Amino acid sequence: MRIGLIADTHNLLRPEALAALQGVDHLIHAGDIGGPHILAELERIAPLSVVRGNNDDQAWAEGIPEQLVLRFDAVSLYVLHDLKQLAIDPRAEGIDVVIAGHSHKPLHEERDGVLFLNPGSAGPRRFKLPVGVGLLHIEGDQFRAELITLQI
Predict the structure, then answer these.
(1) Edge-to-edge, what's the strand order for the sheet holding 48-50?
(2) Which is nearest to 16 in space by CA: 6, 29, 2, 25?
(3) CA separation, residue 7 to residues 40, 94, 97, 129 (Å)
(4) 14 closest CA partner among 139, 144, 130
(5) Can you give the pTM of this predicted structure?
(6) Would you say the C-alpha torsion 124, 59, 100, 42 has a positive or negative sign?
(7) Rounded CA gap, 29 and 100, in Å?
(8) CA 82 to centroid of chain Cα atoms
(9) CB burial class (10 A; 0-12, 13-18, 19+) of residue 35?
(10) How far apart are CA 65 and CA 53, in angstroms?
(11) What does each of the 152 residues of the chain score in pLDDT, given as a tens digit?
(12) Rounded CA separation 88/95 (Å)
């Protein structure tokens, strides 16, 4: 199973991001979406799970949760927008992977047996940070992540 990871589109869904996410089984958007049309476009690719970012403060985003717990095969994911607002101990809660956005900085790091991922920003470039998305490959209780820098 391949899970596509995207965050911080800020109302810009690049064709390069859409191309990199083609063929995934599920998509996760980690917030700062920009508008409902972004979600509609992503749903054309695969089923979509999404959390609200700090800039998703308009009426269209009111029903979007601020965090999600998802399970694919035997792997548990915790999704939120800003990692600084993580209010649980992921390891104690049985979470395998924490997925966040907000910083626009790609992150692929293991902490205390939990994988922390940020696909970076797929929308407008911030400073000199790369523009990117991610993939999470899951098979049973095994998983590995891949961060993809988009050539724009």
Answers:
(1) 48-50, 26-29, 2-6, 132-139, 142-149
(2) 6
(3) 15, 24, 16, 14
(4) 130
(5) 0.97
(6) negative
(7) 9
(8) 11
(9) middle
(10) 9
(11) 999 999 999 999 999 999 999 999 999 999 999 999 999 999 999 999 999 999 999 999 999 999 999 999 999 999 999 999 999 999 999 999 999 999 999 999 999 999 999 999 999 988 889 999 999 999 999 999 999 999 88
(12) 10
**Phi and psi angles of residue 60, each rounded to the nearest 5 degrees, phi first:** -60, -25
Rounded distance between C-alpha atoms, residue 111 and residue 75, angstroms: 16
Report CA dihedral (47, 48, 49, 55) to the nearest 10 degrees. -170
Residue identified by tokens 């407008």 is: 124
Cβ(99)–Cβ(30) under 8 Å?
yes
